[in-house]
Amino acid sequence: MDADLDTLATALYVRSDDLLKDNPHQIPWRPTVGIAPMICDAEMVTLAVMQALLGHTSEARWLRFADGHLRHLFPYLPKQPGYNKRLRRLAATLNWLIGALARDTSVWSDDVWVIDSTPVECARSRETVKRSDLAGWAEYGYCASHSRFFWGLRLHLVATLHGLPIAFALTGAKADERQVLLDLMHDDPTLAASRPGQIMIGDKNYYGRAFEATIADAGIQLLRRARKGEPERPGGRFFKPLRQSVESIFDTLKGQLDLEQHGGHTPQGVLVRVLQRLLAMTTAIWHNDRTGQPVRRSLLAYDH
Known about the structure:
Blueprint: H1 5-22, H2 41-53, H3 59-69, H4 80-89, H5 91-102, E1 112-123, H6 126-131, E2 139-143, E3 148-160, E4 165-172, H7 177-187, H8 190-193, E5 198-202, H9 209-217, E6 220-224, H10 236-256, H11 267-290
Parallel strand pairs: 1-5, 5-6
Antiparallel strand pairs: 1-3, 2-3, 3-4
């Protein structure tokens, strides 16, 4: 297969359609008697991934573009309100498909993971913060990497060195990164149980005797930089280049998939837009892996 957008879209549609037919409990419930949807769930998933890959942050503009350029792939396109409602109902399906496609790659079994979090800003003006439906979930936080305060959420991501998502969570900006990681491991104990000796590389915020003991009991070898006053830790020479790897993964999400321009104003809206971008990156890695491309996370063949 070629590495181009039409081929990726066709491959994703076929694979997601097969997965959803085999797992009907992963799609939103709808009554058996009534008006059948004009566009199926697999087509909606494919349309959402293409929107993220092509960099359209506005749903209305995206549907106008699709109407003029993608009719050969989508004979029927919903209007913006219908697209918005269908996509938000598919949030759980997008979440499940990220894991299903990730497991369908050769890099899922990589024995090195990286873990970090990045801000997902949701507002800047004080008036917007006071009126936002996100209040109570979004909060003020500090990003040490960019030396700035922000109001919003944090995306916590466990990924392979190729950028393939293994586990992720979207939390308030002040959530403890260590507790989020423990919760991720608790939610899916098979992640660590099936990988004895798995190496996980994080920054110096993943520290603490009890925390590190819990991670070790799960069968994961945690490597991190030494904190101030600590002796040098094993594997220190690997941290600088591998730290660059995790920054590169977030740069793909933010620089190419416009994570920070998500445009969501409600909890469900922000969640589905983040899932949309994670699925787009996973799909690109899956397709590049299947087609034998040298760089798994490259989006260059699909962004135009």
